[in-house]
Design a protein that fits this description.
Number of helices of chain B: 4
Order of helices and strands of chain A: HHHHHHHHHH
Helix content of chain B: over 70%
Order of helices and strands of chain B: HHHH
CATH topology of chain B: Helix Hairpins
Shape of chain B: elongated
Number of strands of chain B: 0
Low-confidence stretches of chain A: 1-8, 17-24, 202-225
Strand content of chain B: under 5%
Radius of gyration of chain A: 26 Å
Largest interface: A-B, 99 and 80 residues
Structural class of chain A: mainly alpha
CATH class of chain B: Mainly Alpha
Number of helices of chain A: 10
Structural class of chain B: mainly alpha
Mean pLDDT of chain B: 85
CATH architecture of the largest domain in chain A: Up-down Bundle
Radius of gyration of chain B: 20 Å
Oligomer: heterodimer
Largest sheet of chain A: none
Number of domains of chain B: 1
CATH class of the largest domain in chain A: Mainly Alpha
CATH topology of the largest domain in chain A: Four Helix Bundle (Hemerythrin (Met), subunit A)
Helix content of chain A: over 70%
Largest sheet of chain B: none
Distance between the termini of chain A: 76 Å
Number of domains of chain A: 2
Number of strands of chain A: 0
Strand content of chain A: under 5%
Low-confidence stretches of chain B: none
């Protein structure tokens, strides 16, 4: 046991020495400007995300999601991943949120406060979320306590670097991804148009359950207003 | 930069999205929470890619390439998801996922009305 423990102790000492060197080199209690900016934007992003999942007004949730996703784009910029940041702005802030707002409007989501936005199991959900957050943060902080990212020098995520690596090493997944996007496009069209058999065989019968539903929706909306 | 900053932020965002998926009732709000979870994973991928490209001289940039793929797949997912939600809304008149209990095993007290509605719809 002692023989086995000796090398472990030696490695532990070496690791501790490396840790102290790293800590002296960087310093835990003297954050750099990038770290302070990252922390502030991160707090904003996290707050916007929390408001997104807790607010009672459905449209406001989509608008707070814009703040959270834009904050993440700023975080990517601070991590010197420029291309990802602009893709994030274009795709998430530009199109995904617009799609979500379209969906909210098309399903006649109430404009004002809707008291039944959260389901009955929100306390169980809160317990699960807080427990997993605690476990994840503990594990992550414990694992990467002494790891530092060097952000000086050339940007590691500029458009040139990302494009070169994407089209030199990742061409086949890129092409497969374009096929997947095509399949998603066709699938969305097929899903969202009315089934031809329905409209041909029983137009009245198929339309009958829909009409009261939509009328109810309108009445709900007027009642909310 | 300390690597714990982006890692902790990603963990917190992921758990926020987890809460949203479990607690929200509207299907579109659940999709928004799924987007939050995907973005947390993207932040992790970017942070670790930047770290590895400096510390291990990794020139493959697999993290950033995977982030781009994740963003594209998330866009496809939101398109398909919204199409499904709209189809459900057109057939049922609601996008409340608590009321879509056709495949539930133990029916609750309010199971008669949706069952009758479904029978009417399929008749």
């Amino acid at each position: 046991m002692i023989l086995a423990a000796a090398p472990t102790a030696a490695t532990a000492t070496a690791a501790r020495a490396a840790t102290t060197v790293a800590a002296e080199h960087h310093g835990f209690l003297s954050p750099t400007g990038v770290e302070i900016a990252f922390l502030l934007v991160g707090l904003l992003t996290f707050g916007a995300a929390v408001v997104t999942v807790t607010t009672k007004q459905l449209v406001h949730a989509a608008l707070w999601l814009v703040v959270a996703l834009g904050g993440l784009a700023v975080e990517y910029l601070l991590l010197t991943a420029e291309f990802i940041a602009w893709v994030q702005v274009l795709i998430y802030v530009g199109s995904v949120v617009v799609l979500l707002l379209f969906g909210l409007m098309l399903t006649r989501a109430p404009i004002g406060r809707s008291p039944d936005a959260d389901s009955g199991n929100r306390w169980a959900a809160l317990t699960v979320a807080v427990a997993s957050a605690g476990a994840l943060v503990w594990v992550v902080v414990d694992a990467f306590r002494t790891t530092w990212v060097e952000l000086d020098g050339a940007a590691s995520g500029s458009t040139e670097v990302t494009g070169a690596s994407l089209f030199q090493n990742w061409v086949l997944p890129f092409e497969a991804l374009s096929v997947l996007l095509l399949a998603a496009l066709v699938g969305a069209i097929v899903l969202s148009r009315k089934a031809k058999a329905d409209s041909a065989a029983g137009g009245m019968k198929a339309a009958a359950p829909r009409v009261p539903g939509s009328r109810d929706g309108e009445q709900d909306k007027e009642g909310v207003r | 930069m300390h690597l714990a900053y982006p890692a902790v932020l990603a963990a917190l965002l992921f758990c926020t999205g987890l809460y949203g998926v479990l607690a929200r009732r509207n299907a579109i709000l659940v999709l928004m929470s799924v987007e939050l979870m995907l973005n947390a994973v993207n932040l992790n991928l970017v942070a670790f890619d930047v770290w590895l490209s400096r510390a291990a001289r990794d020139t493959l940039h697999s993290g950033q390439a995977l982030t781009l793929f994740t963003i594209a797949i998330a866009a496809a997912e939101i398109g398909i998801g919204l199409a499904i939600v709209l189809a459900v809304y057109r057939n049922r008149g609601t996008s409340d996922i608590d009321k879509l209990r056709d495949t539930a095993e133990g029916h609750g007290p309010d199971s008669d009305a949706p069952a009758a509605e479904k029978a009417e719809a399929t008749a």
